[in-house]
Amino acid sequence: MPHLLFQNKKIFYRTEGKGKPVILLHGFGEDGNIWNRQINLLKENNSLIIPDIPGSGQSEMLEGKHTIDDYAEVVKAVADETIFKNKDSYQSFSLIGHSMGGYITVAFAEKYPQLLNSFGLFHSSAFADEEQRIATRKKAIDFITKNGSETFLKTVIPNLFSNQSKEERPELIDQLLNISKNIASEALIQYYEAMILRPARISTLQSFPRPILFIIGKHDTTIPFNLSMQQCHLPAISSINILQHSAHIGMWEEEELSNSILKKFLEDLI
Question: CA separation (Å) from 127 to 43, 192, 199?
Answer without folding.
Answer: 31, 15, 7
